[in-house]
């Protein structure tokens, strides 16, 4: 069964992966409504873990994305089609999505509210047009699923938002809406600069002073394996299932996304060697650990367990 996920959050990576596996979903796309300022996306992590393609709206200009959608483009998955709807205003690059009577509006249209317009080239006039001319043009019974809701609500519909949205109900004028949005006086999101920087890199940043310059391979690791010190450790960041099917002897399995829970242990080693299947997940974990201040990491980002197996090196199961 093919599926997709919209606006995934880094801290919920394990839960997202659990649901994907339990529901038997073949994840085809990982989609972000815009470059978020209040959370870090797990787009890259899910892409590496599942093979799905990362997707943003074309105006976001995300170089690491696999697909950039223009207004009206559609993605096919299973028996369904997901339509991209350019809805700038909260930021200049927001994209909403429609399928099967459902609108996924990100931070553009919220339940009884809408996204702020005071950063990332936000524009209240553009948001007004995006909501009233595009999202409100869908049938009244169209379900609305926003990116989040601070009161724990999960869904609304176009009829409800037209009738009850205090900021942009169906009778709201452009002038009044602009006045409301320009006088919200909201605090700046915490860590907005680092969060946006990471999201511009699909969830991780290589501009944090922790750059891997060593072209260390699995063949190099094999040469060192018998002489590893007690202060050195090999870390396998693949999934537990991959690890159980065959791993480097003596390696420790810390699946990508779980490194935060092992920081104290990892920092206790003089040197750790991080690898995955082919190198991409290892690079992501390497960057995440660097952001936490760890400088004892050697990233095997040009090869991985695939090369180890092909070379006929010993494997533990």
Record keyword descriptors for this entry.
alpha/beta; Metallo-beta-lactamase, Chain A; Oxidized Rhodanese, domain 1; 2 domains; 6-stranded mixed sheet; elongated
Question: What's the short version?
Answer:
The chain has 317 residues and is of the alpha/beta class. 28% of the residues lie in helices and 21% in strands. The strands form 4 sheets. A 6-stranded mixed β-sheet has the order 5-6-7-8-11-12. It has a 4-stranded parallel β-sheet with strand order 1-2-3-4, with helices on one face.
What does this protein structure show overall?
With 317 residues, this protein is α/β, with parallel strands linked by helices. The protein folds into two domains: 198 residues, 4-Layer Sandwich (Metallo-beta-lactamase, Chain A); 93 residues, Oxidized Rhodanese, domain 1 (3-Layer(aba) Sandwich), CATH 3.40.250. The strands form four sheets. It has a six-stranded mixed β-sheet. Strand 2, helix 2 and strand 3 form a beta-alpha-beta unit. The longest helix is centred in the C-terminal third of the chain and has 12 residues.
């Amino acid at each position: 069964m093919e599926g997709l996920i919209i606006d995934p959050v880094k801290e919920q990576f394990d839960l997202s992966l659990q649901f994907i596996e339990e529901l038997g979903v073949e994840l085809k796309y990982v989609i972000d409504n815009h470059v978020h300022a209040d959370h870090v996306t797990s787009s890259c992590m899910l892409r590496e873990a599942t093979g799905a393609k990362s997707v943003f709206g074309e105006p976001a200009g995300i170089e690491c994305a696999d697909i950039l959608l223009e207004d009206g483009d559609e993605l096919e998955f299973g028996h369904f089609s997901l339509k991209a709807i350019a809805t700038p205003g909260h930021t200049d690059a927001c994209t909403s999505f429609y399928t099967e009577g459902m609108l996924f509006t990100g931070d553009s249209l919220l339940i009884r509210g809408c996204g702020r317009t005071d950063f990332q080239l936000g524009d209240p006039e553009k948001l007004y047009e995006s909501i009233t001319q595009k999202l409100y043009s869908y049938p009244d019974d169209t379900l609305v699923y926003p990116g989040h809701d601070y009161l724990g609500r999960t869904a609304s519909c176009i009829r409800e938002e037209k009738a009850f949205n205090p900021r942009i109900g169906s009778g709201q004028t452009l002038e009044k809406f602009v006045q409301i949005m320009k006088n919200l006086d909201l605090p700046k999101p915490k860590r907005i600069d680092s969060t946006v920087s990471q999201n511009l890199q699909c969830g991780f940043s290589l501009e944090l002073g922790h750059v891997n310059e060593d072209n260390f391979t699995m063949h190099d690791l094999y040469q060192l394996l018998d002489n590893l010190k007690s202060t050195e450790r090999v870390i396998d960041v693949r999934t537990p299932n991959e690890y159980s099917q065959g791993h480097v002897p003596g390696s420790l399995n810390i699946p990508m996304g779980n490194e935060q829970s092992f920081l104290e242990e990892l920092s206790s080693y003089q040197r750790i060697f991080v690898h995955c299947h082919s190198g991409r997940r290892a690079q992501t974990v390497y960057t995440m650990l660097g952001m936490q201040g760890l400088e004892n990491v050697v990233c095997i980002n040009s090869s991985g367990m695939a090369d180890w197996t092909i070379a006929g090196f010993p494997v533990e199961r």
